[in-house]
Amino acid sequence: MEDSARWDRLGLRAGDVVISAPSKSGTTWAQMICALLVFRTPDLPAPLTALSPWLDMLIRPVDEVVARLDAQRHRRFVKTHTPLDGLPHDERVTYVAVGRDPRDVALSLRHQGANLRRDVIRDLLDDPTAEPGRELGPADAADERAFFRRWTDDDTSPHDDLDSLRGVLWQQSRAWSRRQDPNVVLLHYGDLSRDLDGEMRRLADRLGIDVAEPTWPELVEAATFDRMRQRSADLVPDERLGIMKDTGRFFRRGTSGGWRDVLTDDDLARYDARVAALAPPGLAGWLHHGRNC
Q1: Cα-atom radius of gyration of the chain, to the nearest Å?
Q2: Domain ranges across the chain
Q3: Which among 81, 89, 159, 188 is annotated as catalytic?
Q4: What is the mean pLDDT of residues 41-69?
Q5: Is 288 a catalytic residue?
Q6: 183-200 residue pLDDT tens
């Protein structure tokens, strides 16, 4: 469904912004914030997927996507689910990585998996054998805990599958190891939820974008989950091709900690042991608590 080699086709420019995050970690949220900062208005000139294409996604020919990006005269901001070590490194580019509590990521992945129209994706990929996204088995579809346990224990190499706990931690470790780089910015889903205004201002500062003070309230309001949910047809990565059964379901809760209502003490102990084996303490602390952990 994705091919990171497509990045070799794009000539990067000074000022480009690359948004990299695991699936369901807040990629679209970060794209929307970047769009609001770049255009300084909630009235975007085109759907978000046109302004900020998902370069790796195979449903659009690479020539088409690169041509769209080459034609853009505004500051470009491009989406990817590829880890930072799989992307071209350019000191003129700002890399924005987004983190989220992996327990929330897991439940959101399950929800998203149930909302995908895989038959449509296979047709668009022109590959009847393609596996577009993590399939839900009968137990997973009926039981969130069953899905979470399988997701936690999955030992598939991150080079083959990033949508597991091991894959998420691997991808986030690539960003965490570069958190001190001057052109790498780490955002966190929880920090955005707690202080959207402050985090948007912090990102604007890192990107060197000046926003007139009277404009800030409407930009922050436009980046809230309620407002994005209302505009889901123009914001979700459906590419207007019918990939999702319901684009309105893409923005589910917009909150963190939903796993507390689902997982048992045994599930959490199993998860904690796995995280301790796969992630350094600093990374785990940031993923679970945010920037001010």
Answers
A1: 18
A2: 4-289
A3: 81
A4: 94
A5: no
A6: 999 999 999 999 999 999
Q: What is the pLDDT of residues 108-136, one digit of tens each?
A: 887 665 655 566 666 667 665 656 555 55
If we measure between CA atoms, which residue out of 186, 155, 168 comes closest to residue 279? 168
Check residue 46 and give its pLDDT.
Answer: 94
- Name all contacts of 189-193 with Cβ < 8 Å and 24+ positions apart: 189/25, 189/26, 189/29, 189/98, 189/99, 189/100, 189/101, 189/104, 189/256, 189/290, 190/100, 190/101, 190/256, 190/289, 190/290, 191/290, 191/291, 191/292, 192/26, 192/29, 192/33, 193/254, 193/255, 193/256
pLDDT at 287 (0 to 100)? 97
Pick among 1.10.8.10, 3.40.50.1260, 3.30.70.20, 3.40.50.300: CATH of 4-289: 3.40.50.300
